[in-house]
Amino acid sequence: MLLHLTLASFLLCADAGQTAYASMAGKAERTMEFTGNTKLSDIMADPVFKGFGRLIFPSDPMFFTGNRLNELRLTWYGPLDTKKTVEIVRYFKDQALQRQLFYRLYTDEEILREPGKKDVGLFFFRGVAGAKAAICCAGGGFAYVGAMHDSFPHALELSKKGCNAFALIYRPGARTACEDLARAIAFLFDNAGKLAIDPVGYSLWGGSAGARMAAWVGTHGTEAFGEKRYPRPAAVIMQYTGLSEVTGHEPPTYSCVGTRDSIASWRVMDQRTRALQAHGIDAEIDVFPGLSHGFGLGLGTVAEGWLDHAARFWKAHYTDKNIRE
User: Fold this and answer.
1) Which of 20, 21, 146, 162 has a C-alpha 20 to 30 A away from that of 13?
2) Predicted pLDDT at 319
3) How many angstroms from the chain centroid is the CA of residue 221?
4) N-term to C-term CA, the chain
């Protein structure tokens, strides 16, 4: 099934959202210091990001190349969109100057017992107070977290729609990543008032390895990964992962993939979608001709606008007037 989307509303919403936060009183000048030529080391060392600046980029230099934003490239992905990357780090600085941007998910006691948990947390892309929430999980083959390509851009665009979006920094490893996602869901429900969000009807988004996380936790629940039982997501949004298993208990699922993906077969994803439908589960898939693995937002490609389609799919399973299509 090949679906081609031309969604001018997506671009209009993106432009409106960018203007909104870039024009906040006195903040535009503070964010202009970040450009495509800015060194990654300077961003990570910026005092406003104290304690979490290094988590903006992969923690292991083995998985990225480039010293500046306009040179950054992540393993298993194509070149990043420099304009979008600059927009993200400017947004981060603008937000960090005003309010808490990064939330750690484990206590000091838990970190003392398992030091690997110290870097686990959520970057919060704020939408409308009281609106629904989404958690975005980046890919990286369970070896690293490719957030700048596969979760930060998605969360930013969702926030422009009014959604309260979170990008998860997790521990590499299939099991630990799912445990961290389960903890993130628990965090949203347990801190909904403090965060000013409505966690009921939340969605899980993921690309590649992140899509498997979203599918596994969405299907098996937080209780399967070390947390008490919390509500399942209203929808799971999956990009380019060759997951084939179907239990019949999956949440509504939207998927998308390219026909030239050498890592995740579009045929496997299409077959899984059909299997979900056979179980009576609402499931849709967009297969984009000619695209390879890791097309992200798909800007400038035949996939541009897929996020709008996915957001509408999610919205069909809850009611929230605060989130725009």
Assistant:
1) 146
2) 76
3) 19
4) 23
